[in-house]
Specification:
- The protein is built from four helices and two strands.
- The chain is mainly α and 123 residues long.
- A two-stranded antiparallel sheet has the order 1-2.
- The N and C termini lie close together (9 Å).
C-alpha cells in the first residue's frame, strides 16, 4: 500500500494531477527562498522534506532523489508512492539549475533509472 503524500487536484485539460503547491510554470529560481517556492512542493511535501532534514531549498544541493525517497520511507515507516520520487527528482533537478517541470515529467525517467520501486524491507 502506498502513502498518498498530497491531495491531488485534477487538471482536466491534460488528465494529470498536481499537488497543491507551486505550479512549475510559476517557479522562479531567483525567488526560491522556502521549500514551497520549489516546483511541485506544497505544504504536505514541505512537512515530509522537513522530516528528513530538508528545511530550505539549499539543503537539496547535491542530494540524490532516490536516497531522499528511501530516507522518507524509513522515517515514516511507510512505503511511499513512486510519485514522491518523481517530485524529488523534479526538485533536485531544479536546484541543479534545470528548468522547472511538473513531477509527472519525471515518471518515464524514474522507471528507466530505478525500475520497479521496492522499499528497503522488500515490501
Amino acid at each position: 500500500m502506498y502513502r498518498r503524500v498530497f491531495h491531488k487536484t485534477a487538471d482536466l485539460r491534460s488528465n494529470k494531477c498536481y499537488p497543491p503547491g507551486m505550479n512549475p510554470s510559476k517557479a522562479e529560481r531567483s525567488r526560491t527562498i522556502k521549500l514551497t517556492d520549489l516546483p511541485n512542493v506544497g505544504p504536505a511535501m514541505e512537512r515530509d522534506l522537513a522530516l528528513i532534514g530538508i528545511r530550505a531549498p539549499k539543503d537539496l544541493e547535491g542530494r540524490d532523489p532516490f536516497e531522499l525517497f528511501e530516507l522518507l520511507g524509513e522515517k515514516t515507516g511507510v512505503r511511499q508512492d513512486p510519485c514522491v520520487l518523481d517530485t524529488f527528482m523534479s526538485i533536485t533537478d531544479f536546484i541543479a539549475g534545470n528548468a522547472p517541470q511538473p513531477w509527472w515529467a519525471y515518471t518515464t525517467e524514474r522507471k528507466k533509472r530505478y525500475g520497479r520501486i521496492v522499499g528497503r524491507r522488500g515490501k
